[in-house]
Amino acid sequence: MSPDPLRTVLDVLDVQRLDEDTFTGASLPKPGGRVFGGQVLAQSLLAAARTVDGDRYPHSVHGYFLRAGEVDAPITFAVERMRDGRSFSARRTHALQHGVPILSMITSFQEDQPGVDHADTPPLDVPPPDQVTSALEVLAPVDHPVAAFWTQTSAFDLRHIEESLYLAPAAGRTDRQMVWMRARGPVPSDDQALHRALLAYACDQVMLEPVLRRHGQGWASPGLSVASLDHAMWWHRPVRVDQWLLYVQAAPSAHGGRGLGTAAVYTQDGTLVASIAQEGMVRVPS
Fold first, then answer.
1. What are the backbone dihedrals phi and psi of residue 276, each rounded to the nearest 5 degrees, phi first?
2. C-alpha to C-alpha distance for 147 and 220, rounded to whole angstroms
3. For 176-223, how does the pLDDT look when each residue is reduced to its tens digit (9 = 90+)?
4. Which CATH superfamily does the domain covering 5-112+135-283 fall into?
5. What's this model's pTM, rounded to 2 decimal places?
6. What are the residue numbers of the active site?
């Protein structure tokens, strides 16, 4: 196992500045040699945050995955300063490899302000995380290089309240699932930009699972092909990813080889901290 998987992720997300609005970063190793989408999302967000006043934090992102990234090639992050208003700032980030974009994303930032306040509440009677089996326990005994990779390098502990989809499809079909998630160690910073970027990083692991669950598929299904197409995320309140978070997920639609996954993210005490939507290519063997 990596001596500190979370530290490894934090190091990769720490993009290096080339000039005022340009940054560069490396990638985590990954089976198949393709960049993990959550990684480039998080790096693009953090690059944009480095160009914004420190009292403004990201409250939303809207991004498109344009090409598969290569883990062995550096990524350049070019930030465009679109607007700096009295309360909000907007940045467009292009993540580039070989001179072409692999991700294009707009991030909006806001300073902390008072205002109207309400929020949905999580479902009742959800088992606490210490009563739910960890994906690390599910995958640890599996003799497969992909299972070994995720158990050894995953920076997050995922705990599916319903049965996980790693090894086989679920017994029943539903477009709903709930997952507890927490970083595998303390994050050595209170910086909200970092915690929100780590939430973006982590959620990409599960966003399309309700689509698979609805159609009787698992990650090991022969012939399955899945890829993220676009991603939207809203942070409603401060969040810490080194505390347990509950993802309440759904799949409202699948059509034309595309599926939509949504999630509401709650703290363990029931506070809604984020909402997420992601559409992906989901192709199953006929």
1. -140, 145
2. 10
3. 999 999 999 999 999 999 999 999 999 999 999 999 999 999 998 999
4. Acyl-CoA thioesterase, double hotdog domain (2.40.160.210)
5. 0.95
6. 204, 228, 278
